[in-house]
Each structure stands twice: as structure tokens, then as C-alpha cells.
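Reminder to self: C-alpha cells first, then the designed residues, so the page reads top to bottom the way the pipeline ran.
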């Protein structure tokens, strides 16, 4: 009855499609395009095949290639720098010739989501790569926490993805006027960001959301209970992600995540939903903070002093806008708070970088001493 083309899995005959690119390529639905193809050319020349990483485990990953999902070893792409470790969403060059198969390289990321793993050892952890849309889910239950939305937006901008705010559970706000005001409140604090009210329960706004995410790769951000899993299920049209319970217990009694972290949406587009993206923190999001508060940065450009702190300075355009009722004071407070938070993280990172550089330098010194010792040992003279 239904056509087989709507099936989520595919088993393309690689021979018939390997020469094609763009829309006809079996990986097109995973985001493969002519720019990736161009970047991949040297690896193709080496006999490697392209694939997108759908899941990473310890030492191994699942990569979707033109011939389906393959398991590959990541030994060649696990450098010491945690930010350069292969991650979900990466485009990879896979050597499928031997056993095990190996990921030989990752293509340069267009965008990347990172977070600090702990407050003590401020190290970045890469969460998702090559994301186009960062969907910030915010439930329309209780009071809107604009500061929290701004925090997610800063992180989204920082990643390089285009943020989008989705106000979920719109069915709980039956009065369209009230709903319109809520949307406007969020819009006022989110310059350059689209704000959509949706309901997975009634389907309201879901068509518009599906249309946006159809054009690329998306992630869902938001606090617990924001309705991310429900949104994912609605977009996927399945129950692959059990709402509120994506972790299962495996045979050895351990908790494991059993779902793939990168999924093709039936309406087009790709969804990345890694557990680590839930409850993300800021990570050197200085640029992202600026984008989130674009109107303040713009006003700051008109302050008399270029290093104006917008506190007591004469000729301050930011304070003038607040006085004129054009800029809510809350926005400036929020801006400062995120900037301070970010500076603390950057300071910690700098400390870590200094330690790393010192370690590298010591290693270099030790290596050159060793080399000198070998020379003195008489091989060259
Ligand atoms: N009324 C209403 N309830 C919703 C809607 N979407 C989600 N919910 C409910 O909100 C609760 C939380 O939804 P989830 O999708 O589990 O939220 P989440 O963001 O995935 O939460 P975590 O998995 O903890 O990160 C569930 O009880 C859902 O049934 C909606 O459109 N309308
Ligand atoms: Zn100023």
C-alpha cells in the first residue's frame, strides 16, 4: 500500500550510485552535498569512502555510508585534544578495506557544539558536529525564564548553527492573545532568531518546524521536561526515543543508550539527539554572547568611549536606551552575567592551555636531549 521509498532504512546498490553526487547521492539525505564531496576528493583518491558518524562509543563508532551503517575503529582519530575527537555528525573518511574498518580522517567541521565537562577540570567536550539548526525548546508552562533562553542562544550562536526558539506545549496557553505576547517577549530578547509556538499534542506549529529542520541538521536543546523527546518523536513520526526514558539496561546490568544519535527525518533533514547535549553549559561562548545581545553590542558602538562599561559613563548609548525605555534593564544584566560566566570559563581554559603548552615543551626538550645523546653516541661522527 505505502510506497517503499518512505521506508527509513535503505540499502542502495553502491555501484549504481557511486558516481552520482548532490541530490541523487544516497548520503544526500544525511546532508552530503557538493562542498563535502569536494573536500572529500583527496580521501576518495586514497580509496576511502565517505560516511557520517551516527554514534560514537569507546574506540568505535557507527558510520552511515552509501552501503549502509558500518562499525569502524577510531584509533586514528582520537588525538589528545578532546575537541578533535571524532563525534556524532562528523563526516568521515572510512577505510572499509580491512578488518577492522578504520575512520582515517574527519572532514573539517562547519559547526561544532562543545561544553565544559566539569567545573574543576575545565576541558571542552565535543558533543555534535555540523549542526545547521539549534532548536531551543522552552515549555510554555510556568514563567518564561528569559535568562535561560539567552544562555542557550549564546551556546547555539557559538556553535556556528542558526538558533531557533520553539515554545512547546502551546496547547496549554489556549488564549491566542496571551500566546502572541509570550512569543513577542521571547522575540524581544532573541535578535535574529525565529520564535515558533508549537504543540505536539495538537500539531500546531509542527508543520512550520518540520519545514525549517528539513533544510539541514538539527539538534534539540533545552532543560529536562522542555518537551524535546516529544518534539523528536513528532518529527520522526515514531517512538524511537521513548519519551523521558532513552536509557536502557543492557545484558550486564549497565545503563546504555540504545538509540542512534543521528536520525533522518521523514520530512527531510537530520536530527542529532545525543544525551550529552541535554543540560549543556557555556564553553568559551564570547562570540555567541555577543550575537545573543546583538542590539546591546550595536548600541555600544555608539557610546562615546569605545571601552564604555555602560555604568556611569557620559554619552553611553546603552544607558540612554534603557532610560528611553527602548532596552529592558534585564537584558543588560543578563548580558553582563553571561559575559562574567564566560570570562571565568576562558580564564580556566587558559590555565589548562598553559599547562599543556608547558608539558609539550618539556616533551620537546626531553626528545631533543635524547636525539643529541644518540648523536654523541657516535652514529653521526
Ligand atoms: N500538554 C502538552 N504536554 C506536552 C507536550 N509536549 C510534551 N509534553 C509533556 O511534557 C513532558 C516532558 O516532555 P519530554 O518530551 O519528555 O521532555 P524532554 O525535554 O525530552 O525531557 P528530558 O528527556 O528530561 O530532557 C511529558 O510529560 C510530555 O508528555 C505538548 O505539546 N503539550
Ligand atoms: Zn556605554
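Designed residues (381 positions):
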Amino acid at each position: 500500500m505505502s510506497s517503499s521509498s518512505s521506508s527509513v532504512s535503505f540499502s542502495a546498490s553502491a555501484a549504481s550510485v557511486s558516481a552520482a553526487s548532490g541530490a541523487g547521492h544516497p548520503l544526500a539525505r544525511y546532508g552530503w552535498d557538493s562542498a563535502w564531496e569536494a573536500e572529500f576528493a583527496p580521501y576518495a583518491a586514497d580509496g576511502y569512502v565517505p560516511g557520517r558518524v551516527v554514534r560514537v562509543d569507546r574506540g568505535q563508532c557507527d558510520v552511515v555510508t552509501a552501503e549502509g551503517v558500518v562499525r569502524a575503529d577510531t584509533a586514528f582519530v582520537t588525538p589528545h585534544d578532546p575537541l578533535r575527537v571524532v563525534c556524532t555528525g562528523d563526516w568521515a573518511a572510512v577505510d572499509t578495506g580491512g578488518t577492522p574498518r578504520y575512520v582515517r580522517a574527519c572532514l573539517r567541521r562547519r559547526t561544532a557544539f562543545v561544553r565544559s565537562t566539569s567545573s574543576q577540570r575545565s576541558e571542552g567536550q565535543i558533543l555534535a558536529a555540523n549542526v545547521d539548526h539549534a532548536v531551543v525548546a522552552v515549555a510554555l508552562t510556568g514563567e518564561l525564564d528569559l535568562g535561560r533562553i539567552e544562555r542557550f542562544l549564546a551556546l547555539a550562536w557559538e556553535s556556528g548553527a542558526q538558533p531557533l526558539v520553539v515554545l512547546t506545549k502551546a496547547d496549554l496557553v489556549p488564549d491566542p492573545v496571551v500566546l502572541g505576547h509570550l512569543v513577542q517577549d521571547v522575540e524581544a530578547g532573541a535578535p535574529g532568531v525565529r520564535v515558533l509556538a508549537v504543540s505536539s499534542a495538537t500539531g500546531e506549529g509542527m508543520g512550520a518546524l518540520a519545514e525549517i529542520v528539513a533544510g539541514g541538521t538539527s539538534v534539540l536543546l533545552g532543560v529536562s521536561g522542555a518537551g524535546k523527546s516529544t518534539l523528536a518523536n513528532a518529527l520522526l513520526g515514531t517512538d524511537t526515543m521513548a519519551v523521558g526514558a532513552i536509557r536502557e539496561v543492557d545484558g550486564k546490568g549497565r545503563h546504555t543508550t540504545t538509540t542512534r544519535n543521528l536520525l533522518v527525518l521523514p520530512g527531510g533533514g537530520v536530527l542529532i539527539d545525543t544525551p550529552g547535549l541535554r543540560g549543556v553549559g557555556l564553553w568559551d561562548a564570547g562570540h555567541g554572547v555577543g550575537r545573543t545581545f546583538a542590539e546591546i553590542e550595536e548600541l555600544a558602538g555608539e557610546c562615546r568611549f569605545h571601552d564604555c562599561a555602560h555604568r556611569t559613563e557620559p554619552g553611553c548609548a546603552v544607558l540612554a536606551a534603557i532610560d528611553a525605555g527602548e532596552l529592558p534593564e534585564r537584558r543588560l544584566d543578563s548580558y553582563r552575567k553571561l559575559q562574567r560566566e564566560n570570562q571565568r570559563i576562558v580564564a580556566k581554559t587558559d590555565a589548562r592551555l598553559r599547562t599543556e603548552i608547558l608539558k609539550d615543551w618539556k616533551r620537546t626538550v626531553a626528545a631533543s636531549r635524547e636525539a643529541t645523546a644518540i648523536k654523541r653516541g657516535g652514529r653521526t661522527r
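The first helix runs from residue 14 to 17.
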